Structures are given as C-alpha cells and as structure tokens.
Amino acid sequence: MRPLRTGQRKHHGVSLGFLALSLTTACCLQSQGVSLYIPQSTINATVKEDILLSVEYSCHGVPTIEWKYTSNWGVQKIVEWKPGAQANISQSHKDRVGTFDNGSIQLFSVGVRDSGYYVVTVTEHLGSSQFGTIVLHVSGKTDPGAPLTASVWEADSMTLKETYLPLPRPPPYRDPL
C-alpha cells in the first residue's frame, strides 16, 4: 500500500478534528440543558387579586415556554410562547393573563375557580426541558353565579356555610326511543 501524501493526511485530520469538535460542542450544549427556578411554589390570594406566577430559567438559545392549569376537572393549556414573540393564549384565558420574557405569567382578577396547580415547562430548541409547579389557593366569596350545594338531614337546627362545589357535568343526552 502506498502512503497518503502529506496534503491529503492534513485535510482528513482537519475534517475529523472539526467533526469531533462539533460533536463535543453539541453534547456539551445538550448536557447543559435547561435550569428552572421557582422562588415561590405556593401562592395564597384573594378573589379579584392580580397575582404573579414567578419563574426564572436559563438555557442556550430561545426556549418555548408553556403553562398549564390542572384541577379536579382536568388539564388545560393556558399559554405558550417564545420570549420576544407573540404569545398563544387559550380562549379561556384571553384578557386574563400576561406573559413575561423570563417565563413568568400574571393572572388578572383571580377567582376561586383559579385555585389549582400551575405547571410551567421550558423547552430549549435541542429538546431538553424542565418543568415546575406552583400551587395557587384563592379564598374569598365564591364567584358570582357559582352553584351552591347544601345537604339537610333531620336536625333541630341547621347552619349553612357558603362553599363552592362545582357540579358534575351532566351525562350526554340520549334519546329514549
């Protein structure tokens, strides 16, 4: 076998070196991932108050930030955005939420119905993500028009206490015929 000329060997060495450096850089960026800090994981608020769900993140590049609300009734997406771009706010929270480039959101005029778990997920463009949870407790009078329930058994006296209990959804209508 004939040895390669010096120019060819150097060319392949540079290509392999560049490839190795590129792979190492990509691995380092990916292993760094996303870090997420939540300064206050539980928030107590009163009805009609504006509250800040505060977070801070760090990552390489511009991430995607997503907030979801979880309660006994299920999970609902609130908002998703990339810092510096327009936020995609769900119809249920239009005019009720503000976003910040640090990943925080503000809920305006909260009600008892807003009590629950708020989950934020920060995902960087390489795919790594981090999530955190903030628990919100809202106290005060119930929302206007919210259904109230009461149970009465035989008793000499009765005291009623106002408690917000969402009514279960009715079953789908079925034609009896």
TrEMBL record:
Keywords: Cell membrane, Cell projection, Developmental protein, Glycoprotein, Membrane, Signal, Transmembrane, Transmembrane helix
A GO-annotated cellular component: dendrite
Segments forming domain Immunoglobulin: 40-139
InterPro entries membership: CD2/SLAM_rcpt, Ig-like_dom_sf, Ig-like_fold, Ig_sub, NK_rcpt_2B4_Ig_dom
GO biological process, any: positive regulation of excitatory synapse assembly
Protein's membrane topology: Single-pass type I membrane protein
Signal peptide: 1-26
Subcellular location: Cell membrane; Cell projection, Axon; Cell projection, Dendrite
Subcellular location, principal: membrane
Pfam family, one: Receptor_2B4
PROSITE patterns: PROKAR_LIPOPROTEIN
Function: Cell adhesion-like membrane protein of the central nervous system (CNS) which modulates both the position and complexity of central neurons by altering their membrane morphology and dynamics. Involved in the formation of neuronal dendrites and protrusions including dendritic filopodia. In synaptogenesis, regulates synapse formation by altering dendritic spine morphology and actin distribution. Promotes formation of unstable neuronal spines such as thin and branched types. Regulates neuronal morphogenesis and migration during cortical development in the brain.
Quaternary structure (record): Can homooligomerize through cis interactions within the same cell membrane.
Protein name: V-set and transmembrane domain-containing protein 5
Organism field: Phyllostomus discolor (pale spear-nosed bat)
